[in-house]
Design goal:
The chain is an alpha+beta fold. It has three helices and three strands; from the N terminus they run αβββαα. The protein has a domain of 70 residues: Double Stranded RNA Binding Domain (2-Layer Sandwich), CATH 3.30.160. A three-stranded antiparallel β-sheet has the order 1-2-3, with helices on one face. The longest helix has 21 residues. The radius of gyration is 20 Å and the shape is extended. The termini are far apart.
């Protein structure tokens, strides 16, 4: 795969608005790619910076023959997970679920 192929994949972008001692800015990172991150004063700038960071990250990985993680898709998840609950809470949830159909 080439850089443009990876750039078209649906990587998850996590964005946080930050207000700290250094001021107000936006921080973003690519969930699947450790270390692929950026900041900007605006959301638009962050989107551009994050795409540049993603492109650079992929280029370096390809140049060094290193693996590049592929984004997770909803098909990788069944939608089920097991949780232990107190019996009383399980009962209340079952009743509410029955009410909702």
């Amino acid at each position: 795969m080439e850089v443009k192929d990876y750039m078209g994949l649906p990587y998850i972008r996590l964005v946080q608005e930050i207000n700290d001692e250094s001021g107000h800015y936006f921080y973003g990172r690519i969930l699947e790619l450790d270390g692929c991150q950026s900041t900007s004063d605006t959301l638009e700038g962050l989107y551009e910076n994050l795409n540049e960071a993603l492109e650079g990250y992929i280029e370096i990985k390809i140049e060094n023959n290193l693996p590049i993680p592929i984004p997770e898709t909803p098909n990788n998840y069944s939608g089920k997970f097991v949780v232990r609950l107190p019996k009383s809470l399980h009962q209340r949830l079952a009743i509410e679920a029955e009410k909702e159909g």
